[in-house]
Amino acid sequence: MQDRIPHAADAREGELPPARGEVSEGVLAALRGPAGGPAPDPGAVRTADPLGDDLQLALYLCYELHYRGFRGVDPAWEWDPGLLALRQAMEGRFLDELRARTEGGADVDAALDALLVEPVDGDGVSHFLRDKGELWHLREYAAQRSLYHLKEADPHAWVIPRLHGRAKAAFVAVEYDEFGGGRPERVHARLFADLMTDLGLDTRYGRYLDHAPAEMLANVTLMSLLGLHRVHRGALVGHFATVEVTSSPGSRRLAEAMRRTGAGPAAEHFYAEHVTADAVHEQIVRRDVIGGLLSDEPALAPDVAFGIAATVHLEDRLGDHLLGAWREGVTSLRKPL
Questions:
Q1: pLDDT in tens, 123-133
Q2: What residues form DSSP beta bridges with 70?
Q3: Does residue 278 have a pLDDT over 70?
Q4: CA distance to 139, 203, 255, 269, 337, per residue, from 200 (Å)
């Protein structure tokens, strides 16, 4: 066996959080030791709630090894066979649950058209924040969303080598904007960190992992799951399309919420930036990314439709959780800021 290359400490790595159950405790115990050591028994996954705190945190921990990792964790865990076997079992439970909770089908145009229809009297999270939100609501929302927005475009980028032709060119064009068009100060993850600063939040990567409930974690683990598997490239494109198609109107309301509450110029700018950019992206994604993909691989239509449906389902669950807490006047977080 070759000697391991010493792992240099990286200030961008996150901190390991506390466990939330048997599965996540097993993953954490493994990660605290050297890679190649005992991995958790996949059998524990069979009784875990696929959308619950324990399994979703365990999945998040496994996926984070492909991003920045955790301080003090051997980076060789990223491709450890035992940990990958556990992750595969968790992914199976997660996907089975999502397929059971969403309708099947292959009508991608109908799925996209449905995303464009908004009720006249909307009552979603962005409506609540625009009309009634206080600064503490906005801070909670941003703290949770930081798990997504501080890695916003990264998991989508994994699909680029799995596309070709018109779909690849268009996808890269949209991602180029997400990564700031070559200007580091305009990278959307950086703009979100500036928003967090305006709201008095800690901008360290993964800082609010322990605060976020399972409903938020599932939104992040879904994109990592789809991005890491070539077989799910169609579903990842569906996820990507859902984000871009629904972003502009919601971002407009959130920009208004930031302005009304005096959250700060960077907080307002993050969402104002997405109003215009994502309105353009919506057309590119629908016409060229999805159009190009399905022109080349029409058999992927059911996967694209599933990616749309799964994304909508998980966002709706998160919205129900947030609004349920806020309308009761209590925190939506696992522990208060």
A1: 899 999 999 99
A2: 14
A3: no
A4: 8, 9, 17, 16, 10
